[in-house]
From TrEMBL:
PROSITE patterns: HEXAPEP_TRANSFERASES (PS00101). Pfam families: Hexapep (PF00132), Mac (PF12464). Transmembrane segments: none annotated. The keyword Acyltransferase applies. InterPro entries: Hexapep, Hexapep_transf_CS, Hexapeptide_acetyltransf, Mac_dom, Trimer_LpxA-like_sf. The keyword tRNA processing does not apply. Residues 1-46 form the Maltose/galactoside acetyltransferase domain. This is Maltose/galactoside acetyltransferase domain-containing protein. It comes from Elliptochloris bilobata. Belongs to the transferase hexapeptide repeat family.
Length: 186
């Protein structure tokens, strides 16, 4: 699964792992503490843990790596069938979705719940802002310092220090370090 090859999501070990993650979700909703998050996301920074608003959903949790100073707003969903790496100081708006898994295009091979799926890793660099409702698909790297506009669907790599928006997301402009002209700061 993590290698990007076809796998069956109905495998009993994967079902058990997803079930364990769901139980931790419920615990986290009742007690949104870093202690619970560390059980769900074993690779989260322990010195500067992420602040993640519940509800928050992962498939497994163990394929998610989250850096220092990360904030995720309400209803973020990370389907970690392949590695999802989130750098330092990343901000997610509400309802951000990261989707590494995919399905074969041939419906006879896809075969509903009985068929295989695949997954491609997602990497989100440090100092990235992902606007609310954005969707990031498998195989994508979002470069350092990038901004993903709200509601965007990211299907291709995002160059560092750019602003992307739309469906599919495309580069709107480049960002220079120290440029506060679009920051809302006077």
């Amino acid at each position: 699964m993590v290698a990007g090859r076809l796998y069956f999501a109905s495998d009993p070990e994967l079902v058990a792992d997803r079930t364990a993650a769901r139980k931790l979700h419920a615990t986290y909703y009742a007690d949104p503490s870093a202690r619970i998050l560390h059980r769900l996301l074993k690779t989260m920074d322990k010195e500067e843990p992420a602040f993640i608003e519940p509800p928050f959903t992962v498939d497994y949790g163990y394929n998610v790596t989250i850096g220092k100073g990360v904030y995720m707003n309400f209803n973020c969903c990370l389907l970690d069938c392949a590695p999802i790496i989130v750098g330092d100081n990343v901000l997610f708006g509400p309802n951000v979705q990261v989707y590494p898994p995919g399905h074969p295009q041939d419906p006879s091979f896809r075969d509903g719940l009985r068929g295989p799926e695949y997954a491609k890793p997602v990497t989100i660099g440090s100092d990235v802002w992902v606007g609310g409702g954005a969707i990031i698909l498998g195989g994508v790297t979002v470069g350092e310092g990038a901004t993903v506009g709200a509601g965007s669907v990211v299907t291709k790599d995002v160059p560092p220090w750019t602003v992307v928006a739309g469906n599919p997301a495309r580069v709107i402009r480049r960002v220079e370090r120290g440029d506060r002209s679009h920051s809302g700061i006077e």
